[in-house]
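Need residues for this backbone.
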């Protein structure tokens, strides 16, 4: 009997959106050395489509073109994945605004690599935990969301039309 070795789990994928190229390179290097796969963007315009294939977004607020708060709202509307704002904007008002607009966590620069890594890991744990998936009767796995009470299924925020047999 031939058995294949189990495939190793893929590393968590991070979308880092940071306009400071040097900082983005350093953060991506650090996260990569700690087991994460990082895709970097320096502007916000492509962020929503790039978020299709990641597990978490780390997002700067002050981006050229489309600002980080607008990017946060757009990603939140399209994808049920964790968003961590990493920004130079300090103060309670900025932090509260970002969290109210859809961010799950908020860190101020200068970057503290170990703290950033710990926050990312915590958000990833919560995102994969069924107990934190949403209201009772709702299950989220990655980009897939199932509302058992309404018998609705969504993928990346888009409702899927299923027959009763497919739903079952």
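Answer:
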């Amino acid at each position: 009997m031939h058995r294949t070795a189990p495939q190793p789990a893929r590393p968590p994928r991070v979308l880092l959106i940071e306009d400071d190229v040097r900082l983005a390179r350093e953060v991506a290097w650090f996260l990569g050395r700690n087991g994460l796969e990082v895709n970097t963007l320096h502007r916000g315009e492509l962020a929503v489509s790039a978020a299709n294939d990641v597990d978490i977004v780390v997002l700067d607020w002050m981006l050229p073109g489309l600002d980080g708060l607008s990017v946060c709202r757009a990603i939140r509307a399209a994808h049920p994945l964790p968003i961590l704002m990493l920004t130079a904007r300090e103060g309670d008002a900025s932090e509260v605004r970002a969290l109210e607009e859809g961010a799950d966590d908020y860190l101020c620069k200068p970057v503290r690599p170990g703290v950033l890594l710990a926050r990312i890991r915590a958000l990833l744990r919560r995102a994969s935990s069924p107990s934190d998936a949403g209201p009772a009767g709702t299950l989220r796995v990655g980009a897939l969301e199932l509302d058992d009470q309404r018998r609705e299924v969504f993928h990346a925020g888009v409702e899927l039309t299923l027959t009763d047999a497919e739903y079952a």
